[in-house]
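Checklist before submission:
- one chain only
- standard amino acids only
- sequence pasted in full

Submission:
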Amino acid sequence: MDLELNGKSIIVTGGVLNIDRAITLALAGDGANVTIADLDANQAAAVLDEVKANGEADKRAMFTDNQFAKIAASLPLKQPGRPKDIANVVAFLSSDAVAGHITGQVLSVSGDYSMIG
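Returned file contents:
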């Protein structure tokens, strides 16, 4: 499928596992310049190696380990959020057994970041 992505720049958040990995590889395969924004630098590097092995241009991680450490230190919980934090909320809200009576609410999954004045 040609999505006309050749030469376009795309950031894939959490692009190293499961469907995110498949999306990363598919976008790169269609010629997009893919940046992986993931907290696991080792897995990001492994996916980038896979992209390179498929003959795509050189790609690089968005942040170094030091940059992630500085970002984490500046956050209220002293750690960046992860995709699984959002996934856990989605799973909770999707469950009739535990969230069947919740309607019309805004649930902030920001690690208290939204509370900073």
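Reviewer check: The chain is about 45% helix and 10% strand.
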